Each structure stands twice: as C-alpha cells, then as structure tokens.
Amino acid sequence: MKRDYISKNVIRRLPRYVRKLDDLAKAGIERISSGEMGKQMGLTPSQIRQDFSCFGEFGQQGYGYNVKALREEICNILGINKRYSVILIGVGKIGQSLIENFDFARFGYDFKCAFEIRKELVGQEIAGYPILDRDIQDAYIKENNIDIAILSVGKEAAQRVANTLVDSGIKGIWNFTDVDIEVSDPSVIVENIHFSDSLLVLGYFMNSRDMENEE
Amino acid sequence: MKRDYISKNVIRRLPRYVRKLDDLAKAGIERISSGEMGKQMGLTPSQIRQDFSCFGEFGQQGYGYNVKALREEICNILGINKRYSVILIGVGKIGQSLIENFDFARFGYDFKCAFEIRKELVGQEIAGYPILDRDIQDAYIKENNIDIAILSVGKEAAQRVANTLVDSGIKGIWNFTDVDIEVSDPSVIVENIHFSDSLLVLGYFMNSRDMENEE
Fold first, then answer.
1. Distance (Å, rounded) from C-alpha A150 to C-alpha A172?
2. Cβ–Cβ < 8 Å for B90, B116
3. What is the pLDDT confidence band of residue A1, given thresholds at 50, 70 and 90?
4. ipTM of the complex
5. Predicted model pTM
6. Within its chain, how far is the Cα of A41 from the centroid?
C-alpha cells in the first residue's frame, strides 16, 4: 500500500499521540473524545480528527476513541511492529547516554551494539551491549542487515562516516552530530536531532514574552 | 510590541533558516531568491515569503533577500541579541556533552555553570565551567537573575527539580529528561528535547518506504 502524501506536521504529532495515549492508559482511561484529547494536548478537536483521518477511520462518531486500539493503530503507522535493528557509531558521551538511558525496546527497536574507533574502548560493554571495532562496522551492517545507525561521531567526521554507512546499505540514519549530512542514496532516511534549533525556539518564546511585558 | 499569533510551524522553521543562511554566507553568497532558497530547503517560495511576512517586510520583489540582513532580522526575532543566561542542572553524560560540545555563545547564550548533587563532582570544572553544589542553586538563580536552566537530571527527579527551578524564578527550562514536566507558573517557557519522538518519526518514514517497495 502506498500512502498518500501526509504533511510532516501530522507525522511529527504521531509520537506525541503515543505519549499521550500511554499516559491515559496508565491513568486507567479507556475512551477519550477528540475534544478532551485536544484540550489536554493544546490542539483543536477537528485537528485531531483530521490527523487520524489521514490514516483511515479510527473513532466512532459520538463514542470517542478507544485508547488502547488507537495506540496500536498509531504504532503500526509508525512501524513499531517492524523491530528495526539499530547500531550506534561513536561512543562519546551522547552515545553512551543513549545506550544507558534510551528504552529502544519500548518503542519497538532492537538495539544491537556500538562501534568505536578508539581501540581502548573496543571489547568493553555499555549496559550489556558490546563495543565493537569500527574496522568491522561495514561487514557487520551487511551481514546482519542492520536498518538504522545512530550517528554520534564528531562533527568533522560526520559526513565521511555517513558516506560509509550508506555504502554499507544502512536504511536510516539518526543523526546527533548537529551537522546537516547529505546522503547519495535518496532512499536512505535521515532524521536529525538539532539541539540548537530547540534552544533557539526556547529563546523565541522567551523573547516574545519579554516583548509583551515591556509594553 | 505584542506579536500577533504566529504558528509554531513558522517558529520551528526559523532556526533552520538561520542554519541555511549561515551556510550561504560561508559559501560567499550575498543574495538569494525565495525560489532558490525554497529549492535548497524543500519548501515552496510562497511558503518562505509567507513565513517572513509574519515578521514584516524583509525582501524586495525581484531582488531576493540579502543573506546577512535576513540572518540578522531572524536572530533578532529569536532573541539572540538578548544574551540569555544559562545554567545546567545535573552533570550526567548528556549534560557533560552539552557543556563540552554545544556552542552557546554562537547562538547568543551566556552559559554560566553547572549544578550537581554528587558531592564528589562539586568543585570540579567541565570545559572551564565550574560545577557547583545543588544546595546553592536556588540562591544562585535568584542572585544572578538566571534566565534558562537546562534540565538533565534523572527521570524520577525531573518534576521535583523543575518545581524548585520555577520557585527560584527561572524563566525558561530546556528539558532533556524525556519526561513531560508541568510548570505551575504559566509564564515559564518549557522546551523539550524528546529523543523518542525523533526516532519514531525516522521509523515512520522507513516504514512508509518499505510499504511502497512491497507493492
């Protein structure tokens, strides 16, 4: 099935729905109306109905959404049932922190191992996951048909390492380098964590509020 | 001056414009049309013109945008000239990595120091910045009129520490805990880095591509 074009804004809201539905389930809530959900999330009911209508019919007019069923539907849309395999390239502090703290399994991802260029770290483990030598990274990706690489190397190495990942047949790159990398194969998906974008947005809202107060 | 309502999508694109304009300036480009900029950023020319029109008149019909002037205008909108002061709470791996790698000054922020609860780290430095005792955090924020706190404590402490920050008079929280914190003072701005949202979006696009290929 080919999906019709769906706006990036809708897609970026899907993980927020998953988090909200997790909270609702935890609180023992089984059904929720688009109105109540919108109120809790700062969205209009019609926006919520429109978002879900991109993917088919989820709710029943007048009955609201079944929290558990809706979560499952959204997880299917997000590919959580696919159990994509994940490796990490570059065991710096961010990389270490992700391995130790990020719950890959909870979101349906299968974290495998990390690769590092510093020989003194190779052979060690982080949170039970092995640190392997970058020399065998290429062969490992091909042999194990790895889906996603987390790129957390230094800025200066970012593009070069991304090239080797694409050549090895990686299908997605989760990019923590704060460098806008380019991929020669357009079918490789790149998702960036841009720390600076987030801080600048915080600054925007603080500045806007200051301007209002100065009136 | 009170700003009219501006959509979050426009606001979230502003940092991307800054990065693009930085790249253009580095490449020696002085002027750019909305058409060319749109092509490079995957946006339509009219979207770009509309985005900027939210903040006044920046370009000149037929002449395009002056790269340097446009960057300055956007930086003003983002409050980069305000030199907001920043402290970090919780010197875990993410916190350490931010202090060592994030160029606060480049984006107009004034990073001051970090606070930590583990006494053995107090008195040490990271990248030249002191690690202070969490016991004096409250007094420090008040005395130095600190604007922004980076929250990088453990999940279980996130809400409690956020409460103390709000009580101390902090104006913005950059939240790395992956917990949706609540603030009792609605004037406090919270900006979240949600790693999981980003990974799920990557999974969405990979899943969509797989579904197309399976046709």
1. 9
2. yes
3. very low
4. 0.89
5. 0.84
6. 20
> How many CB atoms are located within 10 Å of the residue A135 CB?
11
Nearest to A97 among B92, B109, B174 (CB): B92
Angle at A188 between CA A184 and CA A189, to 5 degrees: 125
Dist. CA B77–CA B55, nearest whole Å: 8
Q: Is residue B149 exposed (0-12), middle (13-18) or buried (19+ Cβ within 10 Å)? A: buried
Optimal mutation site among B19, B146, B199, interface A, most CBs of chain A within 10 A: B199
Q: Would you say A144 and A162 are in contact if contact means Cβ atoms under 8 Å apart? A: no
DSSP-assigned beta bridge partners for residue B192: B175
Per-residue three-class SS string for chain B: CCCCCCCHHHHHHHHHHHHHHHHHHHCCCCEECHHHHHHHHCCCHHHHHHHHHCCCCCCECCCEEEHHHHHHHHHHHCCHHHCCEEEEECCCHHHHHHHHHCCCHHHCCEEEEEEECCCCCCCCEECCEEEEEHHHHHHHHHHHCCCEEEECCCHHHHHHHHHHHHHHCCCEEEECCCCCCCCCCCCCEEEECCHHHHHHHHHHHHHHHHHHHCC
Residue A28, SS3? coil
A12/B contact by beta carbon, under 8 A: yes
The DSSP letter of residue A110 is E
For residues B7 and B193, what is the distance between their CA atoms, to the nearest angstrom?
19
- Which residue type, as a one-letter code, is found at position A17? Y
**Three-class SS state of A119:** coil
Q: For residues B2-25, give the mean pLDDT.
A: 84
> Rounded distance, CA A149 to CA A95, Å?
11
B-chain residues within 8 Å CB-CB of A55?
A: none
Burial A181-210 (b: 16+ CB within 10 A, else e): bebeeeebbbbbbbbbbbbbbbbbbbbbbe
A-interface mutation test, from B206, B212, B213, most A Cβ less than 10 A away: B206
Q: Are strands A189-192 and B31-32 parallel, antiparallel or unpaired?
A: unpaired
Q: Which residue of A has its CA nearest to B97?
A: A93
Q: What is the mean pLDDT of residues B23-50?
A: 91
Length in residues, chain B: 215
Rounded CA-CA distance A115/A133 in Å is 6
**Structure confidence at residue A3 (pLDDT):** 57
